[in-house]
Amino acid sequence: MTHRTLTLAAAGLAGAMLLTGCQDETRLTQLDQSGVSTEELVGEEMTLTNEVDEIFGEEFLTMGDEQTVVFVTEMPEDLRPGDEIEATGTVAAGDLFSEPGDRDRLLRLTDEITANYLVNRESEPYLTEATVTVVE
């Protein structure tokens, strides 16, 4: 029974690594909220497809209703909020903006409300070293 359960869980996790089609939350957010251990996801390559919520310079963007953070290797030219994208990167987790100076850096990229929101978020999974392409 345990072997079968573990096999089904592994199959579900493997199947979850690729997501296509627009939805409200990114697959990474869904997995995080479903009780899948973040440690199981860290270091895995994952592809997320969703709409861009906000773009923060050349460094990162947020996507989906829960504003999953995606650190990009190279921001596509002419990328705009609302564009449907596919982001493939490595899952990491942690408190993203907890270092001294992060709030000031964010204030150079966005408004005060958004900067405060990003700084005050709890530890969470995110994508790093992501390649981003616009889905047409």
Observed structural traits:
136 residues; alpha+beta; five-stranded mixed barrel; 5 helices; 30% helix; 32% strand; disordered N terminus
Structural category is alpha+beta
Strand order in the sheet with the most strands: 1-2-3-5-4
Oligomer class:
single chain
Percent of residues in beta strands: 25-35%
Order of helices and strands: HHHEEEEHHE
Q: Helical percent range?
A: 25-40%
Total beta strands = 5
N-to-C span: 44 Å
On the 0 to 100 scale, the average pLDDT is 82
Our count of helices gives: 5
Work out the radius of gyration.
Answer: 15 Å
**Largest sheet composition:** 5 strands, mixed, barrel
Low-confidence stretches: 1-23
Which outline best applies?
globular
Task: Offer a quick outline of the entry.
The chain has five helices and five strands.
Please, could you describe this protein's structure?
The model is unreliable at 1-23 (pLDDT under 50). It contains 5 helices and 5 strands. It is 30% helix and 32% strand. It starts with a helix and ends with a strand. It is α+β, with helices and mostly antiparallel strands and 136 residues long. It has a 5-stranded mixed β-barrel.
